[in-house]
Amino acid sequence: MKVLILSADQFDDAELKSVLASIKKLGGDAEVASLQKGPLKGVKGAKVDALYALSEVRGEHYSALVIPGATAGILRHQPGALEIARHFFTERKLVGAIGRGVEPLISANLLRGRFVCSSGADEELKDAGARVQKKDFVVDQFLVTSRDVKSFLGAFAGLLR
Q: How many CA atoms lie within 13 A of 102 on its CB side?
């Protein structure tokens, strides 16, 4: 299984590294895409290579999408990130959002009627038509949302297998 992760510079080191390690441990192949192809630097100095620019991503090559929270505020303003998210929803492929990782999904108008985890963007989620739940994680069909990476990994891993 191939998993696409959307990220950008100033990612949360522990969050992104945990997601990458968990996917690898499950036997998956994770690839990072960002605004531009090349090295990304985390808030605490960790480095990760973006194998693709957003414009180069072909969603049909992936089984799942993950949007970590730390750089979601940047990604939500990128048309390429929104198109990628729309593709995964249209194809009903597994989508995971950690914390503020829901922001690109809000911007892409994908959450109306969906149950999602409370994330710090609750008012915006409600305005987008989402049904906010005060839980550590929420699974709504193919969408997994969580407050933090630990809760996310358990829920996402169960669906990824």
A: 32
Say if pTM beats, i.e. exceeds, 0.70: yes
Tell me the percentage of the chain whose pLDDT exceeds 90: 93
Q: Among 135, 142, 138, 144, which Cα is nearest to 67's?
A: 144
Both structure tokens of 45: 């100095």
Which domains are assigned to the chain? Answer: 2-160 (3.40.50.880)
Query: Is residue 138 within a helix (H) or strand (E), and if so which, with residue range?
Result: strand 137-140
Residues whose CB falls within 8 Å of the CB of residue 42, separated by 6 or more in sequence, listed in order:
10, 11, 12, 13, 16, 48
Alpha carbon distance 31, 146 (integer Å) = 21
Q: What is the pairing mode between strands 137-140 and 143-146?
A: antiparallel
Burial of 121 (0-12, 13-18, 19+ CB in 10 A): buried
